[in-house]
What does this fold into?
Amino acid sequence: MGKIICKKCNIEAKEVVLDSYEYEEGISLKKVKAYECPKCEEFIFTEEQVEEMERRTDMIKSEMFAFNRKVTISGRSLVINIPEDLVKHMNILKGKTVKIIPAGKKRFIVEI
It folds into this structure.
């Protein structure tokens, strides 16, 4: 791929990997590839990078997105850890009350 030039500063941007980037409001993506201008520090994305962020965002928004977690124990209760991406996406806070609804022998619903 050719050089990516910052349109504001007219200098070459450097390839970076962002630990976290909110492409769409409320949906944080991890390990996002981008280019950063060393002068103004703005991020620049190629068409391929934007398409990848859209694909990942759509996957999170769809109900097909699933996580596998082991059930652990804390005191006399069983615990299932909630992944950080899902916590941020759903704005779940420590101490927040959730509603757990049985939905069959192998399924339950958690309402926030």
About this structure: The beta strands are 14-24, 27-36, 43-44, 71-74, 77-80, 99-102, 108-111. The two ends are 44 Å apart (CA to CA). The CA atoms of residues 47 and 53 lie 10 Å apart.
